[in-house]
Write a structure and sequence with these properties.
Blueprint: E1 2-14, H1 23-30, E2 39-51, H2 63-78, E3 81-82, H3 97-108, E4 117-126, E5 129-133
Parallel strand pairs: 1-3
Antiparallel strand pairs: 1-2, 2-4, 4-5
Length: 136
């Protein structure tokens, strides 16, 4: 099995806020991330797929096609958007990086070429904070 990773980048705003809690409880739990005026991140997205190299090309996946898929189903939906307001696939979810990684997986998995499996999503919120998701 060969693992291939494509890195993409997007910028987005969000706030961490549980609507079932008071403003005070949200501020206690989420701190500055509950700011009612939002805050933003420069996200780095690592998408890793796996498969066997093609006998014809030597590729697990055409990286140009993988980039197109990531851009169409994820980056165009997220870049320079408010995750809480503008992104349909984040509707009614807490906009944590953890939930965003799961949502990205769900956007990509059904759209990959035949014979290619999604192995993992690594999403950097900051250079020191990232999550990894490997499916359910």
């Amino acid at each position: 099995m060969v693992y291939l990773t494509r890195v993409e980048h997007f910028n987005a705003a969000h706030k961490l806020y549980n609507p079932n809690w008071s403003k005070e409880q949200n501020e206690i739990v989420f701190g500055k991330c509950a700011n009612q005026n939002w805050h933003g991140h420069n996200y780095e997205l690592y998408v890793t797929v796996k498969g066997r190299p093609s006998a014809d090309t030597g590729f697990v996946c055409d990286v140009k096609e993988l980039s197109r898929i990531i851009n169409q189903y994820v980056i165009e939906q997220l870049d320079h958007k408010n995750l809480n307001v503008d992104v349909p696939f984040m509707k009614d979810q807490l906009c944590s990086t953890e939930n965003l990684a799961i949502a990205i997986w769900r956007q990509l998995q059904p759209n990959l070429p035949a014979g290619v499996q999604l192995h993992g999503i690594k999403l950097y919120e900051t250079p020191r904070i990232f999550v990894e998701y490997f499916g359910e």
